[in-house]
């Protein structure tokens, strides 16, 4: 008899249903994970609203922690009962990029919760190579916010922070909080933040930000030592992604500086100031997943260089999620869904 489980299944625009579905069956080199926590993020909201190109129905959820329930043949590094976090992006392992050690460029990767059944369920299956043990010092709830940390980590890893750089982060969400910490860890002399909500300032300060300006008054930062030291910021990170913040990034960066475009609030930008990009000799970076860096990110957390414990500030249960996804704005930093004790 097939075993069944509870899951949240997306059936199309605005239609998320709680259903009883079969427990996934694992094959060789796969594991079955009993989900404990699963994050809810802007991507899930876009799926809910039908902005992703993949056909319904499927189970969303790509920020997943839990315990190993069952291991498939040939799985050696994990055991039943291990507390784990899952990297939802599954590179193909056979394309040119995967074989050259650049899985982040894989064009054939599948992703749990995006185009494969994900973690908004009692159980989820994943390839063992995408599953990482959670360090003893880290709780399962906090571990659910490792996935949204890996992408910013990969972006800064690509653009680089030189020791003594002055960095500006535009945004005040969890990704912005991560960017501040990563820039500090990588040797920035200062990190400044352009924010929308002043309620985020204490957390941003805890992350290591030194200078602040409200987003509409971002130019106040030009009066700071951080800006004036090098005649503009060495690295600017746009963790928001509106036409306005993209323009601000290009304005606030120094000549010859670097910009990371990370936020994706708008898909296209009319009036993109490419003339300024050329005349200022800028280097622009775009990054999403960073499958090769999961191990490094977990080591940085384990050794106390990156702090994520304070990021989840709201826990909800599966039956509350459909209503939550239909709200345009959330008051918390990061909301996590609880599936089991
Ligand atoms: Zn996400
Ligand atoms: Zn590939």
Written overview of the protein:
This protein is an alpha/beta fold and 341 residues long. The chain folds into two domains: 4-146 and 308-338, Quinone Oxidoreductase, Chain A, domain 1, CATH 3.90.180.10; 150-286, Rossmann fold (3-Layer(aba) Sandwich), CATH 3.40.50. It is 24% helix and 26% strand. It has helices at residues 42-48, 96-99, 140-143, 147-159, 174-185, 201-207, 225-229, 243-252, 274-279, 294-302, 321-325; strands at 4-10, 16-22, 30-40, 64-71, 83-86, 89-90, 110-111, 123-127, 131-133, 166-170, 190-195, 211-214, 233-238, 253-261, 283-286, 314-316, 335-338. β1 (4-10) and β2 form a beta hairpin. α4 (147-159) packs across α5. The two termini are 26 Å apart. The relative contact order is 0.16. The mean pLDDT is 96. Residues 41, 43, 62-63, 148 line the site of one zinc ion (ZN).
Q: Which CATH C-level class of the largest domain is it? A: Alpha Beta
Low-confidence stretches: none
Stated plainly, the CATH topology of the largest domain is called Quinone Oxidoreductase, Chain A, domain 1
Q: What's the helix-strand series?
A: EEEHEEEHEEEHHEHEHEHEHEHEHEHE
What composes the largest sheet? 7 strands, mixed
Q: How many strand elements?
A: 17
Question: Could you tell me the mean pLDDT?
Answer: 96
Helix content: 10-25%
Using brief descriptors, characterize the structure shown.
341 residues, alpha/beta, Quinone Oxidoreductase, Chain A, domain 1, Rossmann fold, seven-stranded mixed sheet, six-stranded parallel sheet, 11 helices, 24% helix, globular, binds zinc ion
